[in-house]
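Quick one, tokens below. Sequence please?
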């Protein structure tokens, strides 16, 4: 397996991020768990999912673990 294939397989998609956040897929480590939530926040998907996703995201932002996506 090449590095490119491995990197593509590990790419965080909104689907994969949702599965990690919901506990369906086990993250490799805490960093990947946070990356999943940040992905959902950056894409805006987190605000369109069930209410607890938004509440968890808001808590992670308030705690400084994740950040709101900044507009350019």
């Amino acid at each position: 397996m090449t590095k490119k294939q491995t990197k593509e397989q590990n790419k965080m998609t909104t689907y994969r991020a949702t599965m990690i956040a919901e506990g369906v897929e086990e993250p490799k480590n805490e960093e990947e768990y946070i990356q999943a939530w940040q992905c959902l926040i950056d894409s805006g998907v987190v605000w369109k999912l069930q209410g607890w996703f938004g509440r968890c995201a808001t808590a992670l932002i308030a705690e400084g673990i994740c950040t709101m996506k900044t507009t350019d």
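Residues 61 and 67 are 5 Å apart (CA to CA). The chain has a mean pLDDT of 89.
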